[in-house]
Amino acid sequence: MERQWRAVKDQTKAMRDSLYVAERAYVDITGLSIEDLIVGSSPTLVIKWCNAGKTPAWHFYCYPFLVFGDKKPEGSSYCMERDVKGMETVFIGAGKEVTVGYKITDLKVTEDIMDDIENRRKRLFVSYHALYVDVYGERRLINSQAVYEPETDGFTDCYDDY
């Protein structure tokens, strides 16, 4: 009888673990761009977030910052202010996307900065830390980095050392 009870208990745990993995929220970036990267402007980083999971992500928050330098993540760092639009940016429903702008308030783009970026003397890196709570009350943390590619006016993942 004891052995049967242990087997049922183990099976229940395996089913719970499987359900947990299959049903929770999975949030990540599906789009990353920068607006107003022109001389005299303070650019805005635009991130499109997607919840590819089967349940919502609550209390979503992202803290991105921009690094202008030779190598990741060394160089001048600039914080961004979140363009808060209300509940649609802190709750991401299952299978939904939200787009959030992050204004870089402490950087005015200069001619020297643009010249360095275009001639690849320095690179523009984005590093972000995002946090959300899944349906089971677990905090989920996302960390990643991307580098701006002036030829395509877009970003790529930072897999390589720059």
Compose a concise summary of this entry:
This protein has helices at residues 2-23, 111-118, and strands spanning 27-35, 44-51, 58-69, 76-79, 81-82, 97-103, 123-133, 139-149, 154-157.
Verbal overview:
By secondary structure, this protein is α+β, with helices and mostly antiparallel strands. It is 19% helix and 42% strand. The protein contains two helices and nine strands, in the order αββββββαβββ. The protein has helices at 2-23, 111-118, and strands at residues 27-35, 44-51, 58-69, 76-79, 81-82, 97-103, 123-133, 139-149, 154-157. A five-stranded antiparallel beta sheet has the order 4-3-7-8-9, with no helix packed on it. A four-stranded antiparallel beta sheet has the order 1-2-6-5, with no helix packed on it. A hairpin with a 4-residue loop joins β8 and β9. The N and C termini lie far apart (62 Å). The model has no long low-confidence stretch (mean pLDDT 83).
User: What are the segments in which pLDDT stays under 50 over at least 5 consecutive residues?
Assistant: none
Helix content: 10-25%
Instruction: Please give the number of β-strands.
Output: 9
The ordered H/E elements are HEEEEEEHEEE
In spatial order, strands of the major sheet run: 4-3-7-8-9
